[in-house]
From TrEMBL:
Residues 177-252 form the Secretion system C-terminal sorting domain. The keyword Chaperone does not apply. Keywords: Signal. Gene3D superfamilies: 2.60.40.3080. Residues 1-20 form the signal peptide. InterPro entries: Secre_tail. This is Secretion system C-terminal sorting domain-containing protein. Coiled coil: none annotated.
Length: 255
């Protein structure tokens, strides 16, 4: 049954605003897209995704977006996918809750849905998350209920304090962007305190990553440069992750 499960398109990304209920994205076409600020890794040869860090005492909201195909090839035939029901997220920290759209977490073949995980972590931890699902397919003309789990997600909870949109505005170590609005090139001046590495991502307002780079950071001023000539005019978000620090802000592209 793994062949059926692997054919289901799963797209994840982080929202920047906490919502009681997520909104499905019907435009999803990719099999998989990592959320902004996440990174890919492997353990014992098995790939997994480290989700954006959570921080002790800070509200956290992660949204998983699903696109369920109408059918898929399996067992030498075309198998119709009737629905996929998201039962639960296994391994969530204490105090975290989930909500789905559509209500009841049942997503029919050919439609989209999403599941949000919201909570405030209380202790440092590294947790593997799995989504337990029930799905119903038609095999040989007979509806067949099946169960499985979607694994490969890691949530890391740290004790440090991230710097968000409001804090960036008042922090003397806040990154400085120029020109803003940008046209073809965007520069980000960033004050490093130790030699380190920073992950910088640019996302549009739908949460899709439009550019991502890793930069070596030295003590003192650092300049991160992005070629943005191919991006459409509009408002975008940048996220800088370095060790336990996260800076997030907005910039505009105008032509």
């Amino acid at each position: 049954m793994k062949k059926i499960l692997l054919s289901i398109s799963v797209v994840l990304f982080t929202t920047f605003f906490t919502n009681a209920q997520c909104t499905p994205d019907p435009t999803i076409t990719d099999l998989y897209q990592a959320p902004p600020g996440s990174r890919h890794d492997t353990a014992f040869g098995i790939p997994y995704v480290v989700l954006p860090y959570a921080y002790v005492g800070q509200s956290y909201n992660e949204v998983l977006y699903f696109k369920i195909p109408v059918d898929t090839p399996a067992f030498g035939q075309t198998v119709t996918i009737n629905y996929v029901k998201l039962d639960s997220v296994l391994g969530m920290p204490a105090g975290f809750t989930t909500s789905c759209n559509p209500a009841g977490c049942k997503i029919f073949g050919g439609s989209s849905g999403c599941l949000s995980m919201t909570g405030t972590p209380q202790a440092n931890d590294s947790i593997e998350l799995k989504v337990a699902i029930e799905y119903n397919v038609t095999i040989g003309g007979l509806p067949t209920p099946l169960r499985d789990t979607i694994s490969g997600f890691m949530l890391v909870i740290k004790g440090g304090q991230p710097v968000g949109l409001d804090e960036v505005a008042t922090s003397n170590k806040a990154p400085k962007l120029y020109p803003n609005p940008a046209n073809n090139t965007l520069h980000i001046d960033y004050q490093g305190q130790v030699a380190d590495e920073a992950e910088v991502t640019l996302t549009n307002m739908l949460g899709r990553v439009v550019a991502a780079k890793s930069f070596d950071v030295r003590n003192g001023n650092n300049t991160f440069t992005f070629d943005v000539h191919s991006l459409s005019p509009g408002v975008y978000l940048y996220t800088i992750q370095e060790n336990q620090k996260t800076f997030t802000g907005r910039f505009t592209i105008s032509r």
